[in-house]
Amino acid sequence: MSVVCQNERGWVLNACSLIDLGHSRCIQWREAKKSHFKCCFKRQCFQLLKSHFSVNASAADDGHTTALPKSDLLCKLSKKRKRKHSDFNQGEIDSRAYHEKIRPVILEGTKSLLDAVRSLAYLTGVTDAVEEPLPTQECNLAALCEMAKELPLVDEADQEAHVQSLGAEGGRASHLDLFCRITENSADSGMLVTLMGDEYVIPPRTAFLLSDFTRIQPLVHCGRRFELIVMDPPWENKSLKRSRRYSSLPSSQLKRLPIPSLASPGCLVVTWVTNRPSHLRFVRDELYPHWGVEVLAEWFWVKVTTSGQFVFPLDSQHKKPYEVMVLGRYRSPMCENSSSGTSETPVEDQRVIVSVPSALHSHKPSLAEVLKPYVRAEAKCLELFARSLQPGWTSWGNEVLKFQHVSYFTVTPTNDPTDIPEGETAGSCTDKPTDTPVSRNPSSPSHSPPTVD
After folding, report:
1. Contact by Cβ (8 Å): 325, 349
2. Distance of alpha carbon 205 from alpha carbon 111, whole angstroms
3. Region entry Disordered: which residue ranges (predicted)?
4. Which residues contact 251 (CB under 8 A, 6 or more apart)?
């Protein structure tokens, strides 16, 4: 059950179930023999049991309390010395003003959704805790993309050459060109395949291109147009520079993304934005107008623990327990002269999405389920700057396979691909792993508690 609850305020998502969607039936070919598996994303990645209301976090707070009442399991913070208004720079002043503007939306929307979902016995703090270390697979995909820049690109006039298939038997994976061609699994089952010496779980009806910003041409030249585009750009910020987890991209470079060449008329465009008002203004006032995208709404992803607490103090001057998405529609010149043939569902403003966040850095929840009503059935969907794959979607990024590595999944052999326990659907994976799951993680990571970005 991926969408646990929905009301006029928004949605409560089970993000782990969203990942499992489409991975419950997987096959692997070895020496012409076919094996069946069920793959579930490791549950310990979503076992965030406690809020980050540490002494240090409290000391950084500006004197407000986390406003949901105690009955809603939100911690009350002790009052600390306030900074004088003159101590803030312009960016901090803008951030405070924006926060005060959207604070009631976050607070009231989250409370409404938590009240509704607790009647379903969800986010009550009762979990099947998994005492296992978090996966810590080292990802070298970005470095490989950098090296692959020396490879020749396919002739842009040959659209068919830009797409390669894994094939009915997993393809000749060792011969696939992952960096210059779109790789596609057109089967209705997921696949366990070996790529570049590592095993990855590829969902059904999925396509991906592994490349950096300078090698996105195959995605443009393959001739596909999309009705939904979601992107999570690597925004520049000081924390990212210090951590060196991945390279960032200057805001001005985002204008070079070929959205007009990828979007169908009326395409819904969704962009994840950091909590810096300068980035939000850039998307609304520069980036979307540059592409011909009309701004429609701002939505908020609210991160909570398994008990329904905000993961960070709501009024903290530093990390907030929410992130922002800007939604808009692509209005191409042809939209004015011709109809796309479908009526557009209005997009409501200031909706809230509540979920337990992943403990893995920059691992956003899938928006596929909540965005379905706003695009036509069978819409072609694209994710840019992706770090994982989604069933039925095309994905692009220089770490597009990162969270598809088999070390992030519990892999359980099954005898029959249609053998799903009663009460489950083909897109769910709610059963507990067997005592002897197939382990394909060669490393032995040390245990570390979940953290939230």
Report:
1. no
2. 37
3. 414-453
4. 235, 236, 279, 282, 286, 287
Tell me what percent of the residues of the chain surpass a pLDDT of 90.
53
Could you tell me the fold of the domain covering 139-300+318-407?
Answer: Rossmann fold (3.40.50)
Average pLDDT over every residue of 365-371: 95
DSSP 310: B
Distance CA 337, CA 135 (A): 52
The answer to whether 190 and 201 are in contact (CB under 8 A) is yes
DSSP string, 293-309: EEEEEEEEEEEB-TTS-
Please tell me the distance from the alpha carbon of residue 221 to that of residue 159, in angstroms, as a whole number: 6
DSSP string, 388-404: S--TTEEEEETTTTGGG
**What are the CA-CA distances from residue 15 to residues 352, 380, 420 (Å)?**
15, 22, 21
Question: How many CA within 13 A on the CB side of residue 366?
Answer: 24
Please give the span between the terminal C-alpha atoms of the chain, in angstroms, as a whole number: 25
Instruction: List Cα–Cα distances, 373 to 21, 267, 299, 326, in angstroms.
Output: 18, 13, 15, 17
How far apart, in whole angstroms, are the C-alpha atoms of residue 229 and residue 262? 9
- The alpha carbon of residue 6 and the mean position of all alpha carbons in its chain are separated, in whole angstroms, by 19
| 65 DSSP 8-state letter | -
Each residue of 36-66: b (16+ CB within 10 Å) or e?
Answer: bbbbbbbbbbbbbeebbbeeebeeebbebeb
- Which sequence spans correspond to the domains of the chain? 139-300+318-407
The two tokens of residue 41 are 């994303």
Q: Is it the case that residue 445 has pLDDT exceeding 50? A: no
Q: Which amino acid is at 151?
A: L
Contact assessment for residue 15 and residue 41, using Cβ atoms and an 8 Å cutoff: no
Say whether pTM exceeds 0.85: no
Query: What's the longest Cα–Cα distance across the chain?
Result: 71
Residues 49, 124: contact at Cβ < 8 Å?
no
Q: Does 78 have pLDDT greater than 60?
A: no
pLDDT confidence band for 100 (50 / 70 / 90): very high
Pairing of strands 190-195, 26-30: parallel
Which two structure tokens, joined as six digits, stand for 357?
Answer: 């966040």
Which residues on neighbouring strands pair with residue 200, listed in sequence order? 193, 405
Query: What letters, b where the CB count within 10 A reaches 16 and e where it falls short, cover 8-35?
Result: ebbbbbbbbbbbbbbbbbbbbbeeeeee
Mean pLDDT of the chain: 81
